[in-house]
Design brief:
The complex is a heterodimer. Chain A is α+β, with helices and mostly antiparallel strands. Chain A is 50% helix and 18% strand. Chain A has a 6-stranded mixed beta barrel. In chain A, a hairpin with a 5-residue loop joins strand 6 and strand 7. The longest helix of chain A is centred in the first third of the chain and has 37 residues, at 12-48. The two termini of chain A are 23 Å apart. In chain B, 48% of the residues are buried. In chain B, the strands form 2 sheets. In chain B, strands 6-7-8-3-9-10 form a 6-stranded mixed β-sheet, sandwiched between helices. Chain B has a 4-stranded antiparallel β-sheet with strand order 2-1-4-5, with helices on one face. In chain B, helix 3 (102-112) packs across helix 4, helix 3 runs parallel beside helix 5 (147-159) and helix 5 (147-159) packs parallel to helix 6. Chain B has 6 helices and 10 strands. Chain B is of the alpha/beta class. The chains are: A alpha+beta, B alpha/beta.
Chain lengths: 372, 229
């Protein structure tokens, strides 16, 4: 402690700059992770947070609800597959609606009340209990989708009252209303009055007790013609947009995760080089290698801790500014990220540690040729 | 009582194919509180002898006893502990940690041993620096001190763990004659006040007058011992 702290005290600017740089980099990591999470949630939050463990799309739909329909015969066949507890229709479509006095797009998810496909992240109000009721997304409260507000499908379609608010249930970056399937049907008829039957976009499934989602999905794919069954997670990951957003973010994030330990590793290596003669002197007058190594590691820890605190501060402030993106401050992922970065930084500082361990105290007698 | 007892110590450096004999059958005893000047030309093996006596370098042959312990049998860990607790060093060039103040350069000795000295250590560091004429310099960094002041801080550092033996490697070579004489005077006074034995390496014959006894070294061989004064 003595050595580590006194050195930092005498080189405040240097260590301050490093902590600041680490703070900025960790902040960028946290912020991008939050953005990524927020974006993905806005794309497919509704799928991730509905209750069906398995979703069955049309085989031609390429994992996109928008272009998917399920025929009655397929629905029956799906319900008969082993491991399927409950199978019920799920409708998805985008409508022009009047909400909060202005015209906007909204996605309706129609599910059979009490059956799979209900939103799972209710934070206020209740689930729909009859026709013309809906659960809306927390994020869209201020846009005419708050509890008690009425949203009307255009032109002159059904009027839906918001009776519940759920978290992270947006879809395709649009407001979402989870309604009774009948309400969804009547909304569809507004647009297409001549339609005889309204087919569901997908089938949502509750597993039979003891069944495994991946196995059931596989069995449906094997046994039912023309459909593609996906576990909820597969449906999320495979949604159009999600994988491309994710892969571009992953590259950038990966680079940041690399840069932090490289910067700190290099910094401590250079500092160790610079004070080689002092370290050699200390070894010569009886400092254990362990003492010098722990001083180094304490400094790494301190820099990373201060850097993380700076990052947390920036993160909390910055997320205030992007709240409308549906991004929230989440403590555990932030802590987890800073721990990962800490471990990476400690591992690159091992290069500097190795230099310290290689110091030859005898070099203090000559002063010249103090090598590492 | 003998503080340092080196017998038939030989040190051979291997460099490439050639063997360099830096010390050849060196035998030297230093008594409690005795100041020995080690005088010899450049390359004669002075630093080598000091390094062996201080547990920084292992002898190729021979026996090295310090304070009754045979350090030629010690392993690396034991030697580190030995250096921390039993000897004081003033090296030829680098002696101070640049990011520690004068006072902290003394305290670091206690810290390396686990900081057992506590508050007392701080008082002792102040007092020692006071004695060395640096009472007003305790909070200065080495870069803010003159060469003579730095050397005096180094002496304080070497004395801080109350060693029985202090090894000085050309303590005045970087100082002018007058300052060098002052520092030698100071070393002598401090050693005598503490009854501490010392070996002072020099190639300047004038400096030997501050020692109780002078040992000459030429080509790794210890020679004619002449009492000073
Ligand atoms: N690490 C080493 N490897 C090889 N030879 C060495 C090494 N260290 C010292 N020597 C040789 O051993 C001899 C004695 O060196 P030493 O440093 O003890 O001399 P010295 O008397 O202290 O000289 P100076 O007054 O210049 O400091 C010299 O010939 C030197 O070249
Ligand atoms: Mg020398």
């Amino acid at each position: 402690m003595f050595l580590a702290l006194h050195e930092i005290r005498r080189a405040k600017v240097r260590f301050g700059l490093l902590s600041g740089a680490v703070g900025l980099l960790v902040f960028l990591i946290l912020f991008q992770q939050a953005l990524l999470g927020g974006l993905i949630n806005q794309f497919i939050g509704a799928i991730e947070h509905q209750s069906g463990e398995v979703l069955v799309y049309n085989g031609q739909a390429r994992k996109n609800l928008e272009g998917s329909i399920i025929l009655p015969a397929q629905e029956e066949a799906i319900a008969a597959v082993e491991g399927v507890g409950e199978a019920s229709p799920l409708g998805e479509a985008t409508f022009t609606v009047m909400a909060g006095g202005s015209v906007t797009d909204a996605v309706l998810f129609g599910y059979v009340l009490g059956k799979p496909g209900a939103p799972t992240t209710l934070i206020e109000g209740r689930l729909p209990e009859g026709p013309n009721e809906a659960v809306a997304s927390e994020k869209d409260r201020d846009d005419g989708f708050d509890l008690g507000e009425v949203v009307q499908v255009q032109p002159d379609g059904v009027s839906i009252t918001v009776v519940g608010i759920a978290r992270d249930i947006n879809y395709s970056v649009s407001p979402v209303l989870f309604t009774d399937f009948a309400t969804y049907e009547s909304a569809k008829r507004t647009r297409n009055p001549d339609a005889e039957t309204i087919l569901p976009s997908a089938i949502a499934i509750h597993l039979a007790p003891g069944a495994n989602a991946a196995e059931v999905a596989q069995r449906i794919n094997d046994e039912v013609e023309g459909v593609q069954a996906l576990t909820r997670q597969q449906a999320v990951d495979g949604s159009p947009g999600v994988s491309s957003v994710r892969s571009s973010f992953v590259i950038i994030l990966g680079l940041f995760y690399l840069v932090v330990p490289l910067v700190t590793g290099l910094f401590f290596l250079i500092v160790t080089f610079q004070k080689a003669s002092a370290l050699t002197l200390l070894r010569a007058i009886g400092a254990r290698s362990r003492t010098l190594v722990s001083a180094l590691l304490i400094q790494v820890l301190l820099v990373m801790a201060v850097g993380s605190l700076i990052a947390f501060g920036l993160y909390a402030v910055a997320l205030q500014g992007v709240q409308n993106l549906g991004v929230r401050v989440e403590v555990m992922p932030a802590v987890y990220t800073s721990l990962v970065v800490l471990v990476l930084a400690l591992s690159t500082s091992l290069v500097a540690v190795r230099r310290v361990l290689r110091l030859d105290p005898l070099a203090a007698t000559t002063g010249v040729g103090v090598h590492l | 009582m003998t503080v340092l007892d080196m017998r038939d110590v030989r040190k051979v450096y291997r460099s490439g194919d050639a063997d360099i004999v830096a010390l050849d059958h060196a035998t030297l005893q230093v008594d409690h509180g005795e100041i020995v000047a080690l005088l010899g030309p450049s390359g004669s093996g002075k630093t080598t002898l000091l390094s062996i006596a201080g547990g920084l370098l292992a002898a190729t042959e021979g026996k090295v006893m310090v304070g009754g312990h045979d350090i030629s049998e010690y392993d690396g860990k034991q030697l580190t502990e030995f250096r921390r607790n039993n000897v004081g060093f003033v090296f030829q060039s680098v002696n101070l940690v640049p990011f520690l103040t004068a006072e902290e350069n003394l305290l670091v000795v206690d810290e390396l041993g686990g900081g057992k000295g506590g508050k007392g250590a701080k008082a002792r560091a102040r007092q020692l620096l006071e004695e060395l004429g640096l009472g007003h310099r305790t909070r200065n960094l080495p870069s803010q001190l003159s060469g003579g002041e730095r050397q005096r801080v180094a002496i304080g550092r070497a004395l801080f763990n109350n060693p029985r033996l202090v090894l000085f490697d050309e303590p005045t070579s970087a100082l002018d004659t007058k300052l060098g004489a002052q520092v030698m005077e100071l070393i002598r006074n401090e050693m005598k006040a503490r009854d501490t034995a010392a070996i002072i390496v020099t190639h300047d014959r004038r400096m030997t007058e501050y020692a109780d006894r002078t040992v000459e070294i030429v080509d790794g061989r210890l020679g004619a011992e002449a009492p000073a004064h």
